[in-house]
Design goal:
rod-shaped; mainly alpha; about 90% helix; about 150 residues
Length: about 150
């Protein structure tokens, strides 16, 4: 607080009181404004915190969804690996290939051969392809003989 000039106070005490009151009111207004700004900053900070918490929650949900997808993919891979191993065990049989390869289309025989090769049994895959190719050659030769016989009768 400012020490009043004694002569000013003595000459015009009303002026001094008015000046002092104005300063007090200014200080009160400034304090109120600072308090208002502090409250506003506080609530703004709370809003920002809420927004950040919502973002964190969304990211955690995404992370959990990705984790579930990854676990499902791992389980699918395990299941596929087991299925391919079972398939390879069942079809890695030369006698089966001798009887069944001729009955398959070229695409089917290639798929069986590829799957056996992918399962780590390339020799079995080659047997299926070779036996299927041999049956195709025999069929082609038989159809050519039939065409020649038909042409001779005409």
């Amino acid at each position: 607080m400012r020490i009043p000039n004694l002569t000013t106070w003595i000459k015009n005490p009303l002026l001094w009181i008015l000046d002092h009151s104005t300063q007090v009111l200014r200080r009160r207004r400034l304090r109120a404004e600072v308090a208002h700004l502090a409250v506003h900053a506080f609530y703004t900070a709370l809003d920002e915190i809420d927004a950040l918490e919502a973002k964190i929650e969304a990211e955690q949900k995404k992370r959990l969804d990705l984790l579930v997808e990854a676990r499902a993919a791992v389980e699918l891979r395990r299941a596929l690996s087991c299925a391919v191993a079972e398939f390879a065990d069942a079809f890695d049989d030369e006698m089966l290939a001798i009887y069944e390869a001729p009955r398959l289309s070229a695409r089917q025989a290639s798929a069986v051969a590829w799957l056996l090769s992918a399962a780590g049994r390339p020799n079995a895959g080659e047997i299926w392809e070779r036996l299927h190719a041999a049956s195709d050659e025999a069929e082609d030769a038989a159809s050519e003989d039939a065409e020649e016989a038909e042409a001779a009768t005409v």
